Amino acid sequence: MTYRPPTPDERTRAVAALEALLAGQEPDLGTLPLGLTHDVDRARRPYTLLSDAPTARLHTALRAGPRFQASHTGPGWGAVAVRESPTVAIEVPHPGSDRFTARLGLDLFDALPTAALIVAGTHRRHADVAHLPDSLFHAYAQTLATTEIQLHGFAETSAPDTDAVVSPGAGNVTDLHRGLEKALTRQGFRVRHHEHLAGRTNAQGIAAAARGTPFLHLELAPALRLHHRDRVVKAITDAWHEQGHQHPDESGPGGDEKRDPEPG
Residue 127's domain is classified under what CATH number? Predict the structure, then answer.
């Protein structure tokens, strides 16, 4: 599928819809090419999905990955899934090219009881929303205005002998960044710094730095995304818990990648 940028009026109304959801209200979508789906996650916690694929279920869509993106005819704006009072936004800007980051995002959404999830709706060759301040992806992130963990993928050749790169983007390193690096290391992963993977010009990171909220730009090697997503989730949830946030066990029910053509 391709991408149509939202008009300023569409962007304003989409933000108003998300604000209504965060306030516990049912939004009036009017003529917006968006729809709402009320669902539950794996722990039976309720959430609401605001998406340009109105009949989609979050789990089905994200597990289908690029095949789902190619199968519907929306404007390519993507989706945001929210629960009551989210304290962290999991962001997937390149689901069609940074392979398996959408599945990882879904796993984190299921694992963190207070997470929201934002997923781009088209391939980065059509719209690189990590660098598009006029996208709904960016507008949703600014509306949530909370800690952000943005998931990316790199090819092995672009960062040899490296499994993960943790960066604050345009902001400052926080205890959460340091804690995530330690947690990834405890999982046996090689955490290195590579400036070309630091996301300094990322639009969401720049906005977070101006707002003063943490932004974690997380780059992952192919093997972690394909074979070790469970260990990445464990590292992130451990780092989150160590900062004093609710642990999942305490909640109860309720162009191409940076250059990585792997399948899946």
Answer: 3.40.630.100
User: By residue range, what is the domain housing residue 223?
Assistant: 8-250
Query: Does residue 257 lie within any of the structural domains?
Result: no
Cβ neighbours, 10 Å, residue 55: 10
**In tens digits, what is the pLDDT along the chain, a chain of 264 residues?**
689 999 999 999 999 999 999 999 999 999 999 999 999 988 999 999 999 875 556 666 665 555 445 555 689 999 999 998 999 999 999 998 999 999 999 999 999 999 999 999 999 999 999 999 999 999 999 999 999 999 999 999 999 999 999 999 999 999 999 999 999 999 999 999 999 999 999 999 999 999 999 999 999 999 999 999 999 999 999 999 998 876 555 544 443 444 443 333
Please enumerate in sequence order all residues whose Cβ is within 8 A of that of 230, keeping only pairs 6 or more positions apart, or say none.
Answer: 107
Closest CA to 137 of 147, 149, 146, 128: 128
Closest CA to 13 of 50, 54, 61: 50
Residue 264 lies in a domain: no
Does 27 map to a domain? yes
